[in-house]
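Lab notes, practical 5.
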Amino acid sequence: VQLVESGGGLVQPGGSLRLSCAAAGFTFSHYYMAWVRQAPGKGLEWVSGINSGGSSTYYAHSVKGRFTISRDNAKNTLYLQMDSLKPEDTALYYCSRDNVGRDRGQGTQVTVSS
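Output from the prediction step:
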């Protein structure tokens, strides 16, 4: 299993970023996928999930209405559109095949600061 996250960066509060996760080594279209994050000094936090076909999405209360998860099974890629970003969204973001990040990649850093 290989998961490679990208798209992070430094953004001002209220800004947007789009994260991507390129998957390889397994049949991507067969799996539920999720985004989890880890803020400095804290544990892993589940952010969002999507079923294998993309028809059902799930969000943590803290990001609902601001983040949108999606996937392109033809491209073996998972996405997270993040809008209205807040300083408390600052974290290392990972994609994973479960809600606890057991097979997460190296992560992509998101920093929200003015």
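Observations recorded by the TA: DSSP finds no helices and ten strands in the chain. The mean pLDDT is 97.
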